[in-house]
Amino acid sequence: MKCISIDLDGTLLNSQHEITETSLKTLQELKNQGHCVILNTGRAIADVIKVPGIASLELPTFCINGSTLYSSTGELLYEATIPIKTYQEIFTVLKKLGVGILVYTNTGGHPSTLPPLHGKSVDELTTLFQEYDYDKLLEQEDVKIYKMIALVYNGQLEKIEEMKAALGPHFDVSMASSFPNNLEITSGEAHKGKALFRYQNLMNIEFEEIIAIGDGGNDLAQFEVATTSIAMGNAPLAIQNAADIITKTNDEDGFSYAMEQLKLLSATDPIIA
């Protein structure tokens, strides 16, 4: 059994954050062949199942950079959280650095998850972060912190390295960027690559090969454990340099093209012309 581990935004989804009919057809064919097809994303599960066509495929889905693992039937198999004390300490550091903060929890994203913010203006984002009452978050009963996303504006990209330097030596966390202007902070146990091995153990299966495809910094973790790593044509140069193969862009059905190039699809019915 081969494992095909697929990122969503910038990879399986096009620039309109949609999955094409071509991609859906490819996913179904890979599944029909008996391969283990996994969605491996920084999104929360609620933002994954909103994508038309995804839920009907019934694929194992690893969310929030490996913080939560769901079976093909939607059963929660594993979760890794940031301790509340650690969250509070990291939050204080981030506030001092003047960045926007999203908090992913078992009750949703506060004040939002990332996908709904695409297209928002600087003023809208600034208002959102300044007016949100983060203290109320910890007043919720049995709240679990899965991830924090620190967001900066495009003219402040140097703050990403500042945050890494401020947090890295002091906290047992994983840090990665799904986009150049963010830093995603999760438990040290949350990792797209570790999640693949964890799933093997949970399901008592063994992958003969792991094929990982992605476009962002948080995909380097799955590239590390992959037999074959594939970067999208729209990925930053650093991500492309870390991959074994570079495919077409997400607006050119690069995922399906890569599967054809690896001869994982039927030769008698090509998906990409």
Description of the molecule:
This protein is of the alpha/beta class. It contains nine helices and 13 strands. Strand 6 (100-105) and strand 7 (108-110) form a beta hairpin. It is globular, with a radius of gyration of 18 Å. The two termini are 27 Å apart. The mean pLDDT is 94. This is HAD family phosphatase.
What would you report as the Rg, rounded to the nearest angstrom? 18 Å
Mean pLDDT over the full residue set: 94
Number of helices: 9
Shape: globular
The helicity comes to 25-40%
Largest sheet: 8 strands, mixed
Proportion of beta-strand residues: 15-25%
InterPro entries: Cof, HAD-like_sf, HAD-SF_hydro_IIB, HAD_sf
Protein name: HAD family phosphatase
Pfam families: Hydrolase_3
Organism: Cytobacillus gottheilii
